[in-house]
Amino acid sequence: MGFLKIRAQTALHVATLVAMAFALWMMFVWVPTDINQGVVQRILYIHVPVAWVSMVAIVGVAVASVMYLITKRENWDRLAASMAEAGVVFGAIMLISGMVWAKPVWEVWWTGEAKLTTALILFFIYVAYLMFRAYFPPGDQRMRLSAIIAIIGAIDTPIIYYASVLWQEAHPPLIVGPIAEEENLVAAQIGLTLLVSVIAFSFLFFSLLVTRLSLAKIEHEHEVLKYRISHTEMSAA
Amino acid sequence: MPADWNTSNPVDVRLTASLSIIWALTLKELRIESRNRDVAVAIVMFASLVIAIFAIAIEPNARTALETGPGVLWAAITFAGVVGMTRATSHELENDAVGALMLAPVSRDLVFIGKSLGSFVFLTIAMLIVFVVFAFMFNLSIFHAEILLVALLAAIGFASVGTLFSSLTFRVRAREVLLPMLFLPTVAPLLFAAIRVTSVSVAGETWSASLPWIQLAVVYDVVFVTASALLFGYVLDD
Fold it and tell me: Model pTM?
């Protein structure tokens, strides 16, 4: 069983490597440079897949947390925690790549645009979720309480988005984004590169997730062993 | 009170019993507060300090007061609210008061409602005092009906989310860090609503400009009071 599992993991990692290499070749070599934005537009091929993956992660954390509260099975808690970690890493890449793109195109690093505000607030919520897990001693209580935090975060998401949209309506952004022009430009090549890139990053996400999950399992076994040793010592003394 | 009182009795008796439990818990919170006045004083003093620092830093005139005032006011209240909640949870840890509360044969959502009602009362009183301080410091008249309404809605949301998160974090060693980290991003929509209603209202705009934000605050409160009350049962589930 264990052997088969390792084989499957290796296969996933190899597939990720191939997909990522292919996607990088497409986004840096194959696809032509955008006429309007120039070379900076290539950030799109990283920014969009990364944003997609962090969205998947947020939904995944919420689903796994609900499942944990229903079933009380540790696997769900480990899945939620691993997804949150991957989600925060991809979320950080999303925020940074977005800022690097915005500076030359919008002429500012940051604006109060709805999607930006929502992404930033969600990023903070999931960082807080991970901080909570880091500070709280492991055990049933931590699993339960962090599941509650994840569910609250998921419930908050649509409200935060609506509030950010409402906020932006009152304060229109100073520089209008080039979304309108972009839609015409998303020609076959750009669309295909984006698609391949999204698939490659999804592979990367699952690769990291699987690795993190097996690490979480080892961590758990380590905790159990430590507990047993300390108890045998106590009973021996 | 028998353990199965809520299944064997008719509806009106159950309602009266529930209300009396909520009332007893709220009264307990208020009685603790009236004895040492820890929480309300902490909120009022902290918020006033933040407002004073910003008033010194910005030196608001008629125009800048309108631009920066609402943001300063609500940031001060939100940060002060976190300080107040940290104070309130430390009462629960003394003599393991929360352990005794958990032994009480009452439904956990009633415990939640009682506790958050207590926090709501302190927050509302503290907010009104902070409003007066702000009105003097920024020379803005903010006692408008829509601002008071959004303040009330904000107090409901802050109290319910705050009660849930402070009972989540009170056993963690770094609760002073974790409570604001969890609380501030979660209440962000309410904060947006309060700031925007305050700024359109002090700028002399009509109710229609505040209405979408007040609706948002109502939706937020309904969702979070319900979700927090339901999830609170899992928090104290030991």
Answer: 0.83
